[in-house]
């Protein structure tokens, strides 16, 4: 059952409801308030749009740390991420720089000769030195053309 939640109602929840109660917000789809023994927390529950129909539950924060307005905004962000097929519980993967990618490649290829490895390093330290510290996903055709 959905409830029209207000900030004042959220403040009174601990007095009105026992621990373990879940209240659904009528304005923000997927936003729930979970009443615990010591605190009340905001949680977003939704389905990931990746073909698996999995439901995920993401803790947004405690009611004494954030307002209902901020919890609704965060819930909307999570709902959009779920629609895109992203799992908000999974950490974002960092993209390596060109130098890191080259080092990983060389480590993964023990069959390369020393001469080939030296040639690769000369290219990255020479003509491609402007790109060494850039994440690989930020290197586009225009950047490479300008170097060429």
Main sheet makeup = 5 strands, mixed
Rg over CA atoms, rounded to whole Å, is 25 Å
- Strand line-up across the major sheet: 1-2-3-4-5
First-to-last CA distance: 63 Å
On the 0 to 100 scale, the average pLDDT is 89
Structural commentary:
The chain is of the alpha+beta class and about 150 residues long. Helix content is about 40%, strand content about 20%. It has 5 helices and 5 strands, in the order E-H-E-E-E-E-H-H-H-H. The protein has a 5-stranded mixed sheet with strand order 1-2-3-4-5. A hairpin with a 4-residue loop joins strand 3 (about 30-35) and strand 4. Helix 3 packs antiparallel against helix 4. The longest helix has 16 residues, at about 70-85. The protein is elongated. The model has no long low-confidence stretch (mean pLDDT about 90).
Task: Provide a brief overview of the structure.
By secondary structure, the chain is α+β, with helices and mostly antiparallel strands. 38% of the residues lie in helices and 18% in strands.
List keywords for this structure.
single chain; about 150 residues; alpha+beta; 5 helices
SSE arrangement:
Elements: E1 2-3, H1 7-16, E2 22-25, E3 31-35, E4 40-47, E5 55-62, H2 68-83, H3 98-108, H4 114-125, H5 141-147
Parallel strand pairs: 1-2
Antiparallel strand pairs: 2-3, 3-4, 4-5
Helix pairs in contact: 3-4
């Amino acid at each position: 059952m959905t409830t029209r939640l207000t900030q004042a109602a959220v403040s009174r929840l601990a007095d009105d409801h026992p621990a373990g109660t879940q209240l659904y917000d009528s304005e923000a789809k997927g936003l729930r308030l979970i009443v615990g023994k010591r605190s009340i927390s905001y949680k977003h529950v939704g389905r990931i749009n990746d073909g698996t129909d999995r439901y995920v539950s993401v803790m947004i924060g405690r009611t004494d740390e954030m307002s209902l307005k901020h919890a609704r905004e965060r819930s909307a962000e999570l709902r959009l991420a779920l629609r895109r097929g992203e799992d908000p519980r999974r950490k974002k993967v960092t993209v390596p720089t060109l130098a890191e990618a080259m080092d990983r490649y060389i480590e993964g290829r023990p069959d390369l000769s020393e001469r080939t490895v030296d040639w690769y390093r000369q290219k990255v330290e020479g003509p491609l030195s402007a790109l060494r510290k850039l994440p690989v996903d930020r290197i586009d055709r225009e950047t490479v053309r300008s170097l060429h």
